[in-house]
Amino acid sequence: MTHDCSFLEDLDLADEQLSFADGRRESHAADWGTEHNDGDGVVPDAVVWPESTDDVSAVLAAAQDRGVPVTPYAAGTGLEGNAVPAHGGISLDLTRMDDVVDYRPEDFQIDVGPGIIGSDVDEYVASDGLFFPPLPSSGDISTIGGMIATDASGMQTVRYGEIADWVLGLEAVLADGTVIETGSRAIKTSSGYNLTDLLVGSEGTLAVVTEATLELAGRPEQIRGGRAIFETLDDAAEAVFDAVRTDVGVAKIELVDGLSATMANEYLGSELPDAPMVFLEFHANHGVDEEIELCRTIFENHDVVRFEMSDDDSEMDDLWQARRELAYAVASYDPDLEPLHPGDVTVPISSYPEMVHETKRLADESDLLVPCFGHAGDGNLHYSVLVDPDDPEQVERGEELYRTLVDLAIELGGTATGEHGIGQGKQAYLEPEHGAGAVEAMRTIKRALDPSDTLNPGKIFPETADGERIRDPEQ
Amino acid sequence: MTHDCSFLEDLDLADEQLSFADGRRESHAADWGTEHNDGDGVVPDAVVWPESTDDVSAVLAAAQDRGVPVTPYAAGTGLEGNAVPAHGGISLDLTRMDDVVDYRPEDFQIDVGPGIIGSDVDEYVASDGLFFPPLPSSGDISTIGGMIATDASGMQTVRYGEIADWVLGLEAVLADGTVIETGSRAIKTSSGYNLTDLLVGSEGTLAVVTEATLELAGRPEQIRGGRAIFETLDDAAEAVFDAVRTDVGVAKIELVDGLSATMANEYLGSELPDAPMVFLEFHANHGVDEEIELCRTIFENHDVVRFEMSDDDSEMDDLWQARRELAYAVASYDPDLEPLHPGDVTVPISSYPEMVHETKRLADESDLLVPCFGHAGDGNLHYSVLVDPDDPEQVERGEELYRTLVDLAIELGGTATGEHGIGQGKQAYLEPEHGAGAVEAMRTIKRALDPSDTLNPGKIFPETADGERIRDPEQ
């Protein structure tokens, strides 16, 4: 489906803010998940690079008048097709709106454009001893706007929470071009509806965020990092649950299964055992050693084989190397295999051992390679179901395993997507997770705020009747 | 305006679940703020005590069909008329839905009915070393449902956040009787719109909460409490700002001005100086003494006169006595004087010294007694503008001062209501705080989810054109 976007030339945009060129449009057709989701992406009819809130407002108002879809885009690091222009139209590339608009270190607050890279926020505030805690692992590539769109989170969420917990307010543009401000600079407010948290995680389907007021945290005085190695994955998962239940003061607690460890060892040429590992980082102002000892005791109760911790930056880096390089290790393990649908599920922490155990059991049963890792302290599990894309039977087996795992997470009281949003990839799971009533309430809000379905149409809500569709961008 | 509510007799409700008696109806006409807001309340046409989600659903569906308003009610401890049935109709008293439905200590989670008293949650989980941190000062009287309705918060918010930060999910009934579930038992989710945080703080205007999944925290190992006395209020406010900016690990940091101290001394017969005070509580697992010393040093830089801290429960109680009894002290200070519009404003912490200073300056200028206190670490200030209700000129002077203070808070980047909601009392400030666009977006959501305006009509949104109305329940 193509849309006539020539009206964009009549708007007050500089030449370099608008392109109809094939190359520019094609570079906005996909995200990181597209290839693995067996898709080619969808090429937008035009790309616009707004440089101000007024630009965004003008594009939206004009597009809505003409029934042309607008899909916000930035780094393109989403995994669920969140920024893919499913119905064509305009890709609204916000990467040039990357300014620090205001910085108030005395209030632990910073106002930024949506296009700023996450780690740039960290660097900007570092000299004041501050940091932005909820950055995802892709924080040095992904933008704050993208993180807000999917309510992203990451390794430090176990201690510091998710993006939503650190967004105090937003400036955003509604589908008709109206600019609104949400939230407050006060750290709490009970005035009116919480539009901020409604927009966070709404994947650009309700409004386009043009500025965000973020909270910052003070850097902890004590940071220690390291690694624990276990004999079995069950031991490792139980140890994580026990540590979280005991309220050990970890800031990161990452599980990596034995298969992932094998892949990392092969990739890095390292000589670690091909065994399940837990990577840890402790943050505290006082008593970090006591917390580490408490954690060691708990881990020993679960037969930890090795427990290594350091307060030296370079040693910590070494201990964490396998975790850090894991994505590359998995990707390069076997050139004939590709992961199906990268993403995550998240379950209540008490169900984490069962989720992990069942994942491996089902993977064995399916006779497929499924390296697993995750922000375990949140109950988060990333799985890569590896299949030979040229073997349709194997692909179908992988698809079935993938569906079974997501269904299991929901059954255990968890969520189909802890940190990557619904996008296109997880639409089939929206209603099983939330129930028909809640999904209809979400649709009601979408229809009310964006009656012409201008903003990122085809996302979050399944469009087909049978609800079985995992991904069908042509729909 | 009265509504024929006889249809309630046809619903499947026991006799003791429904009353048309004057006494029962009159006891649901007001909240804690009504008298001080110079109102008589509004008597509902009927009171219903639902005992199940099905009861709530049946009442709402039937009421919506007949155009009868339904206003949720529980402890009646709101300050802004939040639970007053502004347009009559049904008062839906949720106090009998006070069960602990499920308790999962291993996940730090509890599912409760909306009618449960806050401190009952604390007691229920105490033996597992857990507690519910964001309880307001009225936590031993107020219900969880009421706290959710106004996104309440309290003394420990400076460390632990507000109610919204501790609600993982809700069961709620929409205006047409549809039961929905929101959120997840996983501690994070990015699946679909965040309906949970939209409903928290919506004051029963979008749905009636029938069950809440709350997060719990582990009790800290170290608790110390005490009091600091300052020479001037400016010193005290600056000291609080400096402590918060330095990230001192306080769990409570309460400011009390000299006038409040005078009233407390008089009420208690205590011999403390009539001077500004800061009440403190520190929570930590390690290093609490270091944090206290850091705080002492900061306070000494602001000329603290006395700094007393204890780890003994009964000594802590003694040190906190003036703060604990403050509300009673203010209320009984002068029988001829009454506070206008109790409530709060909250500003960014860097603006707190200015907010406090200006409040006292304007009070002096108005020649009125205005005792002030607040959860200072949040930038929160409660003021009581005391006036002789029989002196219209004084009342008008008081009203003007009140409006000036709320306007000032908004001007300083803060909020008209940090923890008590908009209700009827703060409607005039909704648009000045959020702007016309955001308020219209809120109205759009209200109209979409409750098209017949069944749920708590006349709240949050001003109904008069001029926006000047502070309170007009007859409208």
From TrEMBL, chains A, B:
Sample GO molecular function, one term: FAD binding
EC number: 1.1.2.4
A Pfam family hit: FAD-oxidase_C
Basic and acidic residues composition bias: residue spans: 466-475
GO biological process: lactate catabolic process
Domain FAD-binding PCMH-type: 40-219
Cofactor(s), names only, from the UniProt record: FAD
InterPro entries given in the database record: FAD-bd_oxidored_4_C, FAD-bd_PCMH, FAD-bd_PCMH-like_sf, FAD-bd_PCMH_sub2, FAD-linked_Oxase-like_C, Oxid_FAD_bind_N, Vanillyl_alc_oxidase_C-sub2
Entry keywords, A to Z: FAD, Flavoprotein, Oxidoreductase, Transit peptide
Enzyme class: oxidoreductase
Key word Transit peptide present: yes
Disordered: region residues: 449-475
Family statement: Belongs to the FAD-binding oxidoreductase/transferase type 4 family.
Name of the protein in question: D-lactate dehydrogenase (cytochrome)
Species lineage: Archaea, Methanobacteriati, Methanobacteriota, Stenosarchaea group, Halobacteria
